[in-house]
Amino acid sequence: MRIDILTLFPGMFDAVLGESILKIAQDKKLVQCYLHNIRDYSDDKHKCVDDKPYGGGGGMVIKPEPLFHAIEEVERLDNLAAKKILLTPQGKTLNQEMANALSQENRLMLICGHYEGFDERIRSVIGLLEISIGDYVLTGGEIPAMVITDAVVRLIPGVLGGKSSLQNESFMNKMLDYPQYTRPAVFRGMKVPEILRSGNHKLIEEWRNEKSVKRTEERRPDLLEK
Ligand SMILES: C[S@@+](CC[C@H](N)C(=O)[O-])C[C@H]1O[C@@H](n2cnc3c(N)ncnc32)[C@H](O)[C@@H]1O
Q1: What is the four-CA torsion angle of 85, 86, 92, 93, rounded to 10 degrees?
Q2: Which terminus in the chain has less CB density within 10 A, N or C?
Q3: Residue 164's pLDDT band (boundaries 50, 70, 90)?
Q4: With bands split at pLDDT 50, 70 and 90, how would you rate the model's confidence at 163?
Q5: Which residue, judged by its Cα, is nearest atom 22 of ligand 1?
Q6: Alpha helices in the chain (DSSP H)
Q7: Which class does domain 2-153 fall in?
Q8: Rounded Cα distance, 39 and 140, in Å
Q9: Distance of CA 7 to CAs 48, 59, 112, 185, Å?
Q10: Is 8 a pocket residue for ligand 1 (Cβ < 6 Å)?
Q11: What is the DSSP string of 80-117?
């Protein structure tokens, strides 16, 4: 998969793309991430990308010209058509199902806003998908873009070691994950359930299913209703 990220603050991505699973996925050539500074696509001699909103009001709005230039020129960098995603608190809220669907794409283009957001005409870009990462407002679309990149890349076959670890994760079957334990068997008087140490895989699987359902009922009954 190819991921192009359009941002005014590319430096914010260094740590996230340069560590852990996202780094491994790039090293394994399972994903290529490219950062593009929207400012580089401004025709303005001062490389200005924002302006005051028509009608007044506080804050600045990202101008349409650098955004459209960036989207069009970055699109042309590869023959693969990019699924374009606008990060906005007004978009559809990201969930595991959306992450699964996005992980099937060959190419994503993540467009990060800043300041008061984008000139509304950005919404005329054909096929643009608007995604929010939750009902709160962040300073910019960079952290949401990192969230999507992480949620999607870990689903690409071969990125995570054991496939089964993905299938059992929370939300994958519309359920929360079962409780996990590791050594020591007793910690501060708290014991690991005997069944997990029994070596009986059938009973362990039943126990895990039961706990997964119970935990989902207690914490996220809305998932079971779906
Ligand atoms: C300060 S926000 C602008 C919010 C905008 N004035 C509004 O109320 O809808 C600046 C940028 O951060 C990003 N952003 C903020 N919160 C977000 C969220 N929950 N999900 C996705 N992107 C978000 C968007 O790219 C947005 O254009």
Answers
A1: 90
A2: C
A3: low
A4: low
A5: 88
A6: 14-17, 20-27, 64-75, 96-102, 142-153, 163-167, 201-219, 221-225
A7: alpha beta
A8: 15
A9: 14, 18, 5, 48
A10: no
A11: SPPEEEEEEEEEEEP-HHHHHHHTT-SEEEEE---TT-
Q: What's the pTM value of the predicted model, to 2 decimals? A: 0.96
pLDDT tens string 11-36: 999 999 999 999 999 999 999 999 99
- Residue 140 is predicted with a pLDDT of 98
- For range 182-194, the mean pLDDT: 98
Please give the distance of CA 207 from its chain centroid, rounded to a whole number. Answer: 31
- In the reported structure, the alpha carbon of residue 142 is separated from the centroid of ligand 1 by a whole-number distance in angstroms of 10
Where, residue-wise, is CATH 3.40.1280.10 in the chain? 2-153
Whether residue 89 has a cis bond before it, omega within 30° of 0: no
The rounded percent of the chain whose pLDDT value lies above 70 is 99
Using a 6 Å cutoff on CB, does residue 159 contact ligand 1?
A: no
Q: Where in the chain is the domain with CATH 1.10.1270.20?
A: 168-225
**Rounded mean pLDDT, 62-85:** 98
Q: How far is the CA of 8 from the centre of ligand 1 (A)?
A: 14
Indicate if ligand 1 lies below 6 Å from the C-beta of 114. yes
| Contacts for 72 with CB less than 8 Å, ≥ 6 apart | none
Question: Relative to the CA of 133, which ligand 1 atom is closest?
Answer: 20
pLDDT tens digit string along 117-135? 999 999 999 999 999 999 9
Ligand 1 lined by 144 (C-beta under 6 Å): yes
CB atoms near residue 79 (< 10 Å):
7
